[in-house]
UniProtKB/TrEMBL annotation:
This protein's UniProt keywords: Hydrolase
Protein family according to the UniProt entry: Belongs to the peptidase M20 family.
Organism expressing this protein natively: Bradyrhizobium algeriense
EC number of the protein: 3.5.1.6, 3.5.1.87
Protein name: N-carbamoyl-L-amino-acid hydrolase
């Protein structure tokens, strides 16, 4: 097998141009991107991605949940490909890099190998996973979760957005319900490049995060039922106020997460008052909770303490609180051999690096349950993500893409 020199580099300007070209699909006035999964802007970027994959000679197929796979043949087609990629959907007020960097860097790796005339021993396959973000349909990372068997395809197809549109209808409306059954595309390993989405690499002046673990996630749907009544004439002790109840729940959740700080975080990201009116005491509120920890035992404690706090608040305030766990993703421990491969690539390229735990969830975390997987992080400005201000430098994006490429080459081998 031929050894590839560290001077094989991706085309930094070409990668940067593709990031900014695709940022037009769903561009927001504040410089971010709003590209909700399976919406019209997602179709635009998917069509763009498919066309560029085909132009790069990849065989593209789409699975029954809309995940896209672009296969680059290797010398030994009896081997399952090495997968690389991420996602192209964004948060409602998202940035240009979350998911996009990893997907477009995967395309850039293919373009670089094509330009250099390099055939890999094992094929490689670049991926765009459907609905990583989880903001239109829950849970997040639903396509890779179905891929690994955490959910059936039919279950995911039946999930509804806030308007009652199902995943199946949304896929059909943009023409991305593919023919390939979920799970058909096999991989012998998966590597995902992503911005860190946190402040550590920047603070420590490191270019590469060698991701060895990821936080587990607890997602809940909550509903508070109190009693609507007149804001002027209802004395304070007689109120059954759903919003005041939620306020207590939010603060209790914050205190519970802080008790385990820095090993836990907790967020109420959505709260919707039914029939809101300035002079009506809120009677019904739907809300969500997202709690995370890299420690499974702490996740159990968070769950127990949260339920106890909510039960106490509900009974004291004489309201009903329904609180359902809709998703539990255990912490991730990435494959040690692949983590070493990422670290070796960073070392070979002379890039500063450190091991790191991912605070965010990623498709690689799901995939790691059925195949060896690992991730590469690069810094993002001020650690900000899930925000239109999300930013990263061209040099760091290119460095991450080079680590991705050399990790994949080490895994796939070079045929000639
Ligand atoms: C995905 O962005 C998540 O971590 O929720
Ligand atoms: Mn992401
Ligand atoms: Mn995200």
């Amino acid at each position: 097998m031929t050894k590839i020199a560290s001077n094989l580099q991706i085309d930094s300007a070409r990668l940067w141009d593709t990031i900014h070209e695709t940022a037009k699909f769903g561009a927001t006035p504040k410089g971010g991107v709003r590209r909700l999964t399976l919406g019209p802007e997602d179709k635009q970027v998917r069509d763009w991605f498919r066309a560029r994959c085909e132009a790069a000679g990849l065989e593209v197929h789409v699975d029954a949940l809309g995940s896209m796979f672009g296969l680059r043949k290797g010398r030994d087609m009896s081997k399952a490909p090495i997968g690389l990629g991420s996602h192209l959907d964004t948060q409602p007020t998202g940035g240009k890099y979350d998911g996009v960097l990893g997907t477009l860097a995967a395309l850039e790796v293919v373009r670089t190998l094509n330009d250099a005339g390099i055939e890999t021993e094992t094929p490689i396959c670049i991926c765009n996973w459907t609905n990583e973000e989880g903001s239109r349909f829950a849970p997040a990372m639903m396509a890779s979760a179905a891929y690994v068997g955490d959910f059936t395809t039919d279950d995911i197809l039946s999930r509804k957005d806030a308007e009652g549109v199902t995943v199946a209808q949304a896929l059909d409306s943009i023409g991305y319900r593919g023919a390939t059954p979920v799970g058909t595309q096999k991989f012998s390993g998966f590597v995902e490049l992503h911005i860190e989405q946190g402040p550590i690499l920047e603070a420590e002046n490191k270019t590469i995060g060698v991701v060895d673990s990821g936080q587990g996630v607890l997602w809940y749907d909550g509903k508070i039922t109190g009693f609507e009544s007149h804001a002027g004439s209802t004395p304070m002790p007689l109120r059954r106020d759903a919003l005041a109840t939620l306020s207590e729940i939010v603060l209790a959740m914050e205190a519970i997460a802080r008790k385990h700080g820095p090993k836990a975080v907790g967020t109420v990201g959505e709260a919707v008052i039914a029939n809101p009116s300035r002079n009506v005491i809120p009677g019904e509120i739907a809300f969500t909770v997202d709690c995370r920890s890299a420690d499974a035992a702490i996740m159990d404690v968070l769950d127990k303490d949260l339920r106890a706090a909510i039960a106490e608040i509900a009974s004291r305030r004489k309201v009903e609180v329904q609180f359902d766990l809709i998703w539990r993703k255990p912490p991730t421990h990435f494959d040690p051999k692949l983590v070493d491969a990422v670290e070796n690539a960073a070392k070979m390229l002379g890039l500063s690096h450190r091991r790191i735990t991912s605070g965010a969830g990623h498709d690689a975390c799901n995939l790691n349950t059925v195949m060896p997987a690992a991730m590469v992080f690069v810094p993002c400005k001020d650690g900000i993500s899930h925000n239109e201000l999300e930013d990263a430098t061209q040099a760091d994006c290119a460095a991450g893409a080079n680590v991705l490429m050399h990790t994949v080459l080490a895994l796939a081998g070079v045929a000639s």
